[in-house]
Amino acid sequence: MNPAISMNGLFLGNWGPAIAEGKGLKLQELEGQFTAAVDPYFFANFILSIEGADGSMSPEEAWVSTLGLPVVSLKVGKFLQNFGKNNLVHTHAQPLIDRPLVNQLILGEEAFNTSGIQADILVPLPWYVNLSVAGVSAKTADLFSAPKDEALANVTRLENLWDLTDATTLGFGISYAFGNNLASKLSQFLGADLTIKYVSPKGRGNLAVIWTNEYIQGWRPGLLTLAVPDWENGHGLYSTLMARVHPNFWLGGRFDEVSRTSSGTDKRTAENIVVAYVPTEFSTVRLQSGLTQATGEETKWQALLQLNVTIGSHPAHAY
Amino acid sequence: MLIKILSTLIFITVSSAFANLRVVTTTEDLRSVTQAIGGEFVDVSSIAKGTQDPHFVEAKPSYLVAVSRADLLISIGLELESGWLPLLIRGARQPKLMPGEPGCLSVSEAITPIDVRSQADRSQGDVHPLGNPHFMADPERVLLVADLISKRLSQLDPSHSKEFAENLLKFKNQLQDKITIWKKKLGPCRGTKVIGYHMTFNYLFKFFGFEAVGFLEPKPGIQPTAQHILSLVETAKSQKVKLIVVESFFDPKPGQTLAEKTQAKLVLIPAYVGGDEQSKTYFDWMDNLVTELEKNLK
C-alpha cells in the first residue's frame, strides 16, 4: 500500500562563454516523486525538487486527480500547466539537456507552473482529442504575477493525435492562456505545436524518430510602464529532431529562435546538437554542444555534459 | 424532428444493449485466447503487436481511446506492462476499468510464476521480482488463464455464459490434444541444453524439459556485450549446448556470433502470437515454435 517512490538525480557539467553563471561541475537537481491511488476516487502525485545551486527544496508538483469520473478527469493542486508541448516535460525528461529558448524566455525559467484546477475531457471522436481547461492562480504564476491574490488565469489546450500507420503518429495541439499581469492588464499567450513520431513496431530499442515543433507568442501590455520595465511582446519557436539510431544511443538537434520587444528588440537564436547514451531505462549520459546568437552580441558556444539517473519504482513513460 | 431524435436515441440504446463485449488485451497471445473463448460475442483487439517487445510499448493516445471504449481490459501482470499500462488506464477515464474492478483483469493471478526473486535490485538488470511474466509460452498455464478469462467474460455478459463455457471446453480439449502432440514431438529432447536471449522462453524450456544454461543478455534488459558472448562460448562448449533460441524481433547478430564459434544451432522464433506470418493464433504460434525447435534438434 506504500506509494510508488522514485528519485531522479541530475549531475551537470557546463562550459563555454554562452553559460552566464555556474560553469563547471555541479549537482543540477534532485527530484523525488511519490504517486499512489488515494482511494477508489482519487490519485495523488507529489514531486519534490531540490535545486542543486542552493539546496532549496520546493514542491515542483503536488496534485490530486479524480479516478471515479467517466470521460472527464479533474486535477487540483500545483502542477505544470497543459500549455504547449514542452511545458509538461520535467527537466530530466527533456530531449536535450536544456529547455527550448522560447519556453525559458516567454513562459519562464521555471516553466509555466502554478496552482489551480484543471478539467481534462476525452472528446468522443474516432481519433484522440483531449480538451483541457484550467482556472489557475495568476498571482503565483511567474507568467502573469497578477497583484491580487484571488486573480485567476485561464489555460486551455486542445490536443489531437492521429495514427498515420502502426509506427507513425501525427500530433497537433493549440494552447491559449490569459490573465491579468503585474500592471493589472490582460496578458495573453498563444501556442501551437506539431509532432511527428515514428517508432519501429518491431522488437525493442529499434529505430525511432521524433520531430517536434512549437510556436509560442505572448502579449503583455503595460509592463514597460513598471518601475522595473519588462518585455511586452514576444514570440518564438523551436524545432527538435531526435533519432534513436541504436538501442542505446540517441542523436538529435534543436533550432531555437525567440524575439522579445521592450525598449528595443532582443532577438536570440541557438543551434544545439546532442548525443545520448542510454544503457537502460534508468540511466542516461548526454553530451550537448551548441551556439547562441543574441542581438548586439558575438556568437557564443556552450558544451554540456549530464548524468541522469533514476532509482526506485519503474516510471511509466508518457507518449 | 422530435420523432427523429427519439428514434435515433432508441436505436443507440437498443444497439448498445445487443452490442458485443468490447475487450482490449495487452498482448496478441491474450487476444487469441480471448477470441477463442468469446467467439462471436466479443470484439477483441490487442495493444502490443506480436512483433513488439511488450516491456517497451509506447503508450500511444490511440491505445488510450481504444481502452476508454472497452468493457474489459485483460493484461498479463507481473509488471510486464508497468511502463505503459497505468498511463493508459488512468488516461482512459473509465472507472469500470480501474484495478480491482470487474473490467480490469490481470491473468497472472491464475498461475504460479517461476523466476520469483525475493531479493531484487536493478544491479541484477530489469528483473521482475514477482516472477517471470512470459507464462503464455507454457500451454498448461494457458489452460488456467483460459478458465479465468471465461469466468470474467461470463461475469460481464451473463447472457452468453453458456456459449463462453462451450467455447472454453472446446479450446481446452483442443489444447490438451495439442499438448500431447507437442510433448510427443519434443519429449525425446528432454534435457537439451539451450541458451536464450532474454528470459522470454523460460516457461517453454521448462515445459519441454530443456535446460537454459545462459542468456545472450548479460542481465535481463541489458544488451549483449562482446565479453559476455565470449564467456558464453566457453559455457556452450563445456555444457554441449545444442540450441541458441532467439526471439525473432531481437538483433540476431550476437546469436549468430555465438553459433559460429560453437556447435550450437541458432533458432529464430516469434516471441508472441502475431510475431510472424504463420503465427496467427495461439495454436499456430505454439505449432510454429515446436516445429522450429524439432527441426533444429534433428
How would you describe what is shown here?
The complex is a heterodimer of chains A (319) and B (298). With 319 residues, chain A is an all-beta fold. Chain A has a single domain (64-309), classed as Porin, CATH 2.40.160.10. Chain A is built from one helix and 16 strands. Chain A has a 16-stranded antiparallel beta barrel. In chain A, strand 9 (168-180) and strand 10 form a beta hairpin. The longest helix of chain A is centred in the N-terminal third of the chain and has 7 residues, at 101-107. The mean pLDDT of chain A is 93. Chain B is of the alpha/beta class and 298 residues long. Chain B folds into two domains: 14-180, Nitrogenase molybdenum iron protein domain (Rossmann fold, 3-Layer(aba) Sandwich), CATH 3.40.50; 187-297, Nitrogenase molybdenum iron protein domain (Rossmann fold, 3-Layer(aba) Sandwich). Chain B is built from ten helices and eight strands. Chain B has a four-stranded parallel sheet with strand order 2-1-3-4, with helices on one face. In chain B, helix 2 packs across helix 6 (161-186) and helix 8 (226-239) packs across helix 9 (253-261). Chain B is globular. The N and C termini of chain B lie far apart (74 Å). Chains A and B meet through strand 8 of A and helix 3 and helix 4 of B.
Task: Specify the number of helices of chain B.
Answer: 10
Q: Strand portion of chain B, in percent? A: 5-15%
CATH names the topology of the largest domain in chain B as Rossmann fold
Overall geometry of chain B: globular
Helix content of chain B: 40-55%
User: Could you report the average pLDDT of chain B, rounded to the nearest whole number?
Assistant: 92
Task: Please count the beta strands of chain B (DSSP E, at least 2 residues each).
Answer: 8
Low-confidence runs of chain B: 8-16
- Helix and strand content put the structural class of chain B at alpha/beta
What is Rg of chain B? Answer: 21 Å
